[in-house]
Amino acid sequence: MDDVKGQMEGVTRVYTELDNKISDKGGVQNLFGMNRKIRQALETITLGELDSMLAEIHRAKEGLTRLQEDVVEIRVLKEVLSAPASGKGNGISMGLGSRAEQPKAFSS
Q: What is the tens place of the pLDDT at every residue in 23-35?
């Protein structure tokens, strides 16, 4: 019986030490409460719902990438068409260049 009593005192001592170390953040009981709240919150959503959200984010990202590419192309065309004519040939220069020549703020 003394062994059980000594073990319980040891558990109490360790628990108290842990509680004292994190007492400025609410103590061990607060951690247990937060753990319970997190688990309850996670139980309200399914993995399928999270996967759907990830798929929507992926589609939006792809759409934004395509839009960015379109805007970069329009910007390059504007630069080319706004540049003064070179005076050679028909006066139209269609040197659109590569993406590497685009300003960094607009490169993907």
A: 878 888 888 899 9
